[in-house]
Amino acid sequence: MTGVVIGRQPFGVFILIDQVADAVGLVRVTALPPGVELPRRGALVAGDVLWHEESNLQVTVTPVGYEGV
Predict the structure, then answer these.
(1) How many domains does the chain have?
(2) Which of 44, 49, 14, 43 lies closest to 28 in space, CA to CA?
(3) 28 in a domain, yes or no?
(4) β-bridge mates for residue 45, sequence order
(5) DSSP string across 5-65
(6) CB 63 within 8 A of CB 44
(7) Residue 22 lies in a domain
(8) Does the pTM exceed 0.85?
């Protein structure tokens, strides 16, 4: 899946998932390679879904091929 970063927090970034209305994903800082900065707002992130909650469309994402933005 892909999504655009809509928010940054010390624990990770929130992404608005493409092609799924109102679905927001969280990429935890622990899922990023060591020493890599969090992506900036507006950055496109590709990843795999680790977990999702259908009732409120929350998704946990692990980045794929992330090299920093």
Answers:
(1) 1
(2) 14
(3) yes
(4) 3
(5) EEEEETTEEEEEETTSTT-EEEEEGGGSPTTPPPPPTT-EEEEEEEEEETTTTEEEEEESS
(6) no
(7) yes
(8) no
10: its two tokens: 């010390």
- pLDDT of res. 22: 82
Per-residue pLDDT band for 69 (boundaries 50, 70, 90) equals very low
Tokens 């010390």 belong to 10
Residue at 62 is within a domain: no
At 5-60, the pLDDT tens digits run 999 999 999 999 998 888 899 999 998 888 888 999 999 999 998 888 877 777 88
DSSP at 3: E
Structure tokens at 32: 């990023």
Domain containing 20: what range? 1-33
Residue 64 lies in a domain: no
